[in-house]
Amino acid sequence: ALYQVGEARVKLAGNDRSGARLALDEAEKGLTPLLPKFESLAGTKPETITQLFELARGDLERDARLAQQDMERLASELKLIVESVNP
User: Fold this and answer.
1) Reported pTM
2) Least packed by Cβ within 10 Å: which of 5, 10, 52, 55?
3) Rounded to an integer, what is the distance from CA 5 to the centroid of its chain?
4) CB 48 within 8 A of CB 77
């Protein structure tokens, strides 16, 4: 999922909004079954991750700069989860 979020950021930087949306959708699809485990593993509420995906997708059409910031925050949250699972 972290890879797909990075891919979405690269696609958006290249002005490929549909490619960025597709990468975000793939990332979220892969994470959905794992969301309930995030809180116990890393202290990250599943709602936080879901909201960041929604925010990034919403900003894709409105403001590319804000969408990049949203995806940066999403990537940061995912990195924290990875680090807590693999110290």
Assistant:
1) 0.89
2) 10
3) 5
4) yes
Q: Per-residue DSSP letters for 36-59?
A: HHHHHHHS--HHHHHHHHHHHHHH
Distance CA 17, CA 38 (A): 28
32-81 pLDDT, tens digit per residue, is: 888 888 777 777 888 989 999 999 999 998 999 999 999 999 999 999 88
CB-based burial of residue 33 (10 Å sphere; 0-12 exposed, 13-18 middle, 19+ buried)?
exposed
User: Which amino acid, one-letter code, is at 2?
Assistant: L
Which amino acid, residue 85?
Answer: V
